[in-house]
Write a structure and sequence with these properties.
Keywords: Signal. With about 400 residues, the protein is mainly beta. The protein is built from 6 helices and 22 strands.
């Protein structure tokens, strides 16, 4: 098992370095060859007095805090963060993470900190993949191994948009300092989106339960995972689904548009298929590149699910633009509370992110309770004339 883990780590190192710098060296040489002009550097929250208060804080509601403001050329290759208070006392959805490259005034990374590191909604749970993880205890250790290069500068900050003070913010930002990067080095990007989707006017007709299903004639209603202009490659997504119905949420096809093509350049067959799974899964599963770290524990698919897919060895390349959308149920027929963080690299820092939703707009919808379901049952019984022995699966 240890040999497999070592091999997997070496493969990941090779491919991520290849993605960032188009380096043709293999993973073995990357580990064994001396690199001229390379220095390992770190910015952290250590106590500069030599005592044990190795954190920054307090960070009050509404305040910004800069983790690092690095000058020069280099590649960030590791970030570790943990926060007090815990997620049940302060939502990680209300702390916004931003990253700026080479003096750009607009961020190339903008996301709630929890969603970026694979912690959906207002929760905290263990999550394991190659580029991102949330480690013990209870997902409190937020870790990134994405390579983040910069030519002139790198600045990472958080904004406390919660109503709660951050008592302690611990972090490492590890990077290498280099003399120069190849001209075709790409910049790391990440973008968060959230939407409460709309059902069809004639109802949520998934699996044709309410009548014959229709074809999707308006892909404009698809949920947007990301859209950018420039040259680069897409490398993955964390996708968060909050379903108010026990019906399967994942019949929606993934549709990717490359370089302005009017119809999908890459058209998938269903949500679980894009995420490398099948047949409506509802079990926790973790692979280095895809998985289900959080699944709902309610009837059917009612409630919250987190699924991820990283294109580490199969990046999606684009020359001038890229747009990634996905249906919310077949033909966009379902009301779902969706959120996502997309990750990609491109040739210039992107400057056209839509305005980040405020914390109230980002707030996840509550999960319907047993009482809610009983009220639904009563409305159904009323439609049947309140016959006194209705069981619940009578369809006529």
């Amino acid at each position: 098992m240890n040999q497999i883990l070592k091999l997997t780590s070496m493969i990941f190192l090779f491919f991520t370095m290849n993605l960032v710098a188009q380096d043709t060296s293999n993973s073995l040489s990357a580990l064994t060859q001396d690199k001229e002009g390379v220095k390992s550097k770190r910015v952290s929250s250590y106590d500069e007095t030599g005592k044990n208060s190795d954190y920054k804080g307090p960070i009050k509601p509404g305040e910004f805090f800069t983790l690092c403001d690095i000058k020069g050329t280099g590649i960030i290759n590791h970030i570790w963060i943990t926060i007090s208070p815990t997620a049940d006392e302060m939502s990680r959805n209300d702390v916004v993470l931003r990253m700026y490259w080479d003096g750009s005034e607009t961020p190339s990374v903008e996301s709630p900190i929890g969603a970026f590191f694979g912690q959906g909604w207002e929760e905290s749970y263990d999550f394991s993949s190659l580029p991102l993880s949330a480690g013990p205890k209870n997902g409190a250790a937020l870790v990134s191994y994405f390579q983040m290069p910069f030519h002139k500068s790198a600045r990472i900050e958080i904004e406390n948009q919660s109503d709660t003070e951050i008592d302690a913010f611990y972090y490492y930002v590890d990077y290498i300092e280099v003399d120069k990067l190849p001209n075709n080095t790409l910049y790391f990007h990440a973008w968060y989106n959230h939407e409460l989707t709309k059902s069809l006017p004639d109802g949520e007709n998934e699996w044709g339960l309410l009548g014959e299903s229709r074809a999707n004639s308006s892909v404009q209603d698809n949920y947007l995972i990301m859209e950018t202009k420039g040259k680069g490659h897409f490398v993955g997504v964390n996708y968060y689904v909050n379903s108010p119905t026990p019906m399967w949420y994942g019949e929606g096809d993934d549709m990717m548009y490359i370089d302005g093509e009017s119809s999908p350049s890459l058209h998938g067959t269903g949500t679980e298929d894009y995420f490398n799974t099948s047949w409506c899964p509802k079990v926790p599963f973790s692979h280095p590149y895809f998985g289900y770290p959080r699944v709902n524990g309610d009837i059917g698919w009612l409630g919250r699910t987190h699924v991820y897919r990283y294109h580490i060895t199969d990046p999606i390349h684009f020359d001038s633009s890229f747009k990634f959308t996905i249906e919310h149920g077949h033909n966009n027929n379902l009301t779902l509370d969706l959120a996502s963080v997309a990750y990609w690299y491109q040739d210039k820092p992107f400057t056209e992110f839509p305005k980040l939703q405020d914390k109230e707009e980002r707030k996840p919808m509550p999960i319907p309770s047993a009482q809610d379901i009983h009220i639904w049952r009563d409305a159904w019984r009323k439609s049947k004339g309140y016959e006194r022995q209705l069981w619940g699966n009578e369809r006529e």
